[in-house]
């Protein structure tokens, strides 16, 4: 694939910044989504974002072990947070690949290190490693994502009015908050 290096937006939060949830009802990071994953993310060095996911009994597949689909969801969120916050462009997941290398037990924390790999037009390539219980713990899950830059029209034309009102209330619907360049 022919990609260019991803250039972090000059207004992106600096390394070390704790990222705010992007939407309080988001399944991945929202604090008003009781059944959600409650990921917490921090900007890292060199086009990276570090997210933490505490696996609870709500996330089980087999007894005592995380469900693979929920782990994929955690990576979707972590990769999306990396893309959205570092590039400051609205983008959606086009493709998400996951390798499950080790079981992830209930009670463990997955430390997900996501990194921007490159950009080709509207396509943004991003990948992540999920380390068990420490930033340098063994890699349990690995993921690669392709995000596609979209205009705000994507959300306007597909989401219901009530959701758009919530988005506006959160101050996210203002186009000048983002670089729209699909
Ligand atoms: C106003 C709100 C703003 C919010 C921003 C907040 C940011 C806050 C910060 C951060 C937090 C974010 C955290 C969120 C994390 C979760 C993210 C999700 O889960 S998103 C939901 C799941 N994904 C979908 O629902 C997409 C559904 N699909 C679509 O809408 C379309 O298919 C779309 C937009 C992906 C592409 O459609 P087209 O018509 O616009 O464009 P075409 O031409 O088809 O694709 C563009 C290029 O991408 C490639 N492409 C698209 N899909 C591909 C695929 N699956 N595999 C390979 N290539 C693909 C195509 O081949 C094309 O490439 P070529 O330019 O020709 O080289």
Explain this structure to me?
- By secondary structure, the chain is α+β, with helices and mostly antiparallel strands.
- The chain has one domain: Hotdog Thioesterase (Thiol Ester Dehydrase, Chain A), CATH 3.10.129.10.
- Helices cover 19% and strands 30% of the residues.
- The protein has a six-stranded antiparallel sheet, with helices on one face.
- A hairpin with a 4-residue loop joins β1 and β2.
- The two termini are 19 Å apart.
- The mean pLDDT is 92.
- The structure holds ligand 3VV.
- The site of ligand 3VV has 24 residues, from α1, β3 and β6.
Spatial separation of the terminal alpha carbons = 19 Å
Cofactors and ligands:
ligand 3VV
Task: Tell me the CATH architecture.
Answer: Roll
**Element-level helix/strand string:** EEHEEEEHH
User: Into which percentage range does the β-strand content fall?
Assistant: 25-35%
CATH class descriptor: Alpha Beta
Name the shape in a single word.
globular
Fill in the CATH topology.
Answer: Thiol Ester Dehydrase, Chain A
CATH superfamily label:
Hotdog Thioesterase
Mean pLDDT: 92
Rounded to an integer in angstroms, the radius of gyration calculated over CA atoms is 16 Å
How helix-rich are the residues, as a percent range? 10-25%
Domains (count): 1
Instruction: Extract low-pLDDT stretches.
Output: none
What's the number of extended β-strand segments?
6
Main location: membrane
Family: Belongs to the THEM4/THEM5 thioesterase family.
Subcellular location: Cell projection, Ruffle membrane; Cytoplasm; Membrane
Protein name: Acyl-coenzyme A thioesterase THEM4
């Amino acid at each position: 694939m022919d990609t260019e290096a991803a250039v972090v937006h000059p207004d992106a939060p600096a390394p070390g910044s704790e990222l705010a949830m992007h939407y309080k009802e988001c399944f991945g990071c929202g604090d008003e989504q009781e059944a959600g994953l409650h990921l917490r993310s921090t900007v890292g060095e060199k086009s990276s974002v570090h997210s933490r996911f505490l696996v609870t009994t709500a996330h089980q597949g087999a007894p005592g072990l995380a469900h693979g689909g929920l782990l994929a969801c955690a990576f979707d969120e972590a990769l999306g947070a990396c893309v959205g916050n570092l590039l400051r462009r609205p983008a959606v997941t086009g493709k998400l690949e996951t390798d499950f290398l080790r079981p992830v037990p209930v009670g463990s924390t997955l430390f997900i290190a996501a990194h921007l790999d490159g950009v080709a037009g509207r396509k943004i390539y991003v990948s992540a490693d999920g380390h068990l219980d420490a930033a340098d713990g063994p890699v349990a899950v690995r993921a690669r994502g392709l995000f596609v830059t979209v205009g705000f029209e994507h959300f306007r034309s597909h989401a219901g009015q009530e959701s758009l009102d919530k988005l506006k209330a959160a101050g996210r619907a203002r186009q000048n908050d983002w670089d729209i360049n699909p």
